[in-house]
Amino acid sequence: MKDRIKKIILFVGLFILFLYSDLFYLVPLKLLKFDLTKLTSREQLIGSNISSLIVLIIIFIIYHKYLISKFKDYKKNFSEYFDFGMKIWFIGIIGMVISNLLISNLTPLQEATNEALVDNMLKKAPLETFISASFLAPFIEEMIFRKSLGDMFKNKKVMVIASGLVFGLLHVVFSFNTPLDFLYVIPYGFLGGAFAYIVAKKDNVLIPISFHFIHNSVLTLFSIILMGF
Predict the structure, then answer these.
(1) Which among 67, 154, 211, 221 is least surrounded, fewest beta carbons within 10 Å?
(2) What global pTM score does this model have?
């Protein structure tokens, strides 16, 4: 019981750290009496990336023994893990595509607000957005929503569902415009659930981190190309 309470406290602490990570750069600037309203979008994103890097370092310090052991495991079983991860990632993508098509055809919604925000950031700061989406987000999100959150549940099925649901909500709750936007919890939840399933089956968070990196990198680079950069 005490061990489970510790895991819950750790998850809550990391989740709060994740939500308010921008304070790592905003507070120092405020203390220096810098006018935050004068920050450009690029400067804000650079500050946000620095803050995310600090969160990443904190997570690594907390889980360094686990990560080192799982890296050795991943290296030893790379072929098996990569093939399995590829299959489950593909299933997650199919779930995302089908649910997105249903949402766009059955509702007035055409694009998740979160996606629109990312596209807007790409236009203003493509390099900084790519770093955030492709390198920082995959590690931080997988460690918090697959490893830390996952450790709270003994039942793996419940873990997969909870991880997918929380992951989906995270990508909607801070950017929704109408209640209908919460339908996008479904496609995001499919991907989050797929990544959680990988951890449930192989007990190695580095696998979904890898495919989260690939997923975000491909989508971000594709968007950058379409924008003509």
Answers:
(1) 154
(2) 0.93
In sequence order, what DSSP letters do the residues of 74-112 get, joined into one string? Answer: HHHTHHHHHHHHHHHHHHHHHHHHHHHHHHHHHSS--S-
Dist. CA 203–CA 85, nearest whole Å: 12
Whether the CB-CB separation of 190 and 101 falls below 8 Å is answered with no
Segments making up each domain of the chain, as ranges: 2-226
The answer to whether 210 and 83 have CB atoms below 8 angstroms apart is: no
Q: What is the pLDDT of residues 25-52, one digit of tens each?
A: 999 999 999 999 899 999 999 999 999 9
Q: How big is the CA angle at 96 (ends 128 and 74), to the nearest 5 degrees?
A: 65
> Do residues 25 and 47 lie in contact, with contact meaning Cβ atoms separated by under 8 Å?
yes
First to last CA, the chain: 53
The 10s digit of each residue's pLDDT in 139-195 is: 999 999 999 999 999 899 999 999 999 999 999 998 888 899 999 999 999 999 999
Asked if 174 contacts 19 with a C-beta cutoff of 8 angstroms, the reply is: no
Amino acid in position 124: K
Q: What is the CB neighbour count within 10 angstroms for residue 4? A: 12
Task: Count the Cβ atoms, other than its own, within 10 Å of residue 101.
Answer: 11
